[in-house]
Amino acid sequence: MKILLTFCLILSFSGLSGQDIDSIMQSMDSGTGNEPVFATFKSPKLVLLQTNETQKKQELIFWVGHRFGDISGGSRTLFGLDYATDIHLGFDYGISDDLSVGIGRSRFNETYNIQGKYRLIQQLEKEMLVSVTLFGQSSWITRKESFDNEFPKESDKISHFLQVILARKFSPSLSLMLNPGYLIRPSLQVEDVNDKASFFVLGMGGRFKFTKRLSLIVDYTLANGLDRPGELSPQSYNPLGIGLEIETGGHVFSLNFQNARYITENNFIPHTQSSWEDGGVRFGFSISRNFYLGPKDNQGKKGY
Predict the structure, then answer these.
(1) Selected residue with higher pLDDT from 72 and 258
(2) 8 Å CB contact between 49 and 221
């Protein structure tokens, strides 16, 4: 019933039922003023979740993320700034305007990841209510084993995450998204025998732009209590992030707070073991920078 409810939410949000894709494509080609909607979000990631944004063709983005320790440590740890729970460096490249591929590395578990993002449907001004983007990521743990035979097979170190990103730009100031996804893990990566190795999650997020360069960003991932047991040992919590996004030309900065210690979906979804109520909140930031690698004559012609 929970899985059925999730899919009902997806269908009701997207408004895709009954849509005739062929007629939509024809209206795009006919030049009737039914223009595509771009720049729903300004970065490939919000606080924790992926957005629907893909890289332009021949464009490379360099993304850096950092998570500090719990602010509950007070002045003794400079409110968590003495510690780093995770650091992530990543690159995404646009194969086409609709397809991006990426690679990255996280400090937690010395994890490497590869990912791909494909824009399946573009929001249109009149007929298509939402953009639909597909996202997939595989992560590989490369740290040394904590004990003998912790990972008997190399495949025991690898996990996967699949997601559909439904996003809508309601106005120049307001964008929202709904992100149903599925995490796939080897059983040896499960800490509690009552936990599930693989389970559905439902993410949601939004961006409210209140000045030309400043935006409030929020995202939340419902995992525990949906398709995963709510009571686990160690106790897990649903990740919630709130931040301020700052645009400065080719750079996008995000200053944020969240209860997740880790950055990539394969890590923070199963391993968020702090809550906002108990002071398990930490400061973090991210920086992204775009580089155009194609011919200079084509740069800026597509103006998103």
Answers:
(1) 258
(2) yes
Residue range 2-15+34-146+153-293 forms a domain whose CATH class is: mainly beta
pLDDT at residue number 234: 85
Over 80: is that where the pLDDT of 10 sits?
no
The residue to which tokens 């160690």 are assigned: 234
Confidence tier at 298 by pLDDT (50, 70, 90): low
Question: Which residues are bridge partners to 68 per DSSP?
Answer: 84
Distances (CA, A) of 79 to 212, 279, 300: 31, 11, 42
CA 92/CA 285 separation, integer angstroms: 18
Please choose, from the candidates 49, 10, 68, the residue with its C-alpha nearest in 3D space to the C-alpha of residue 221.
49
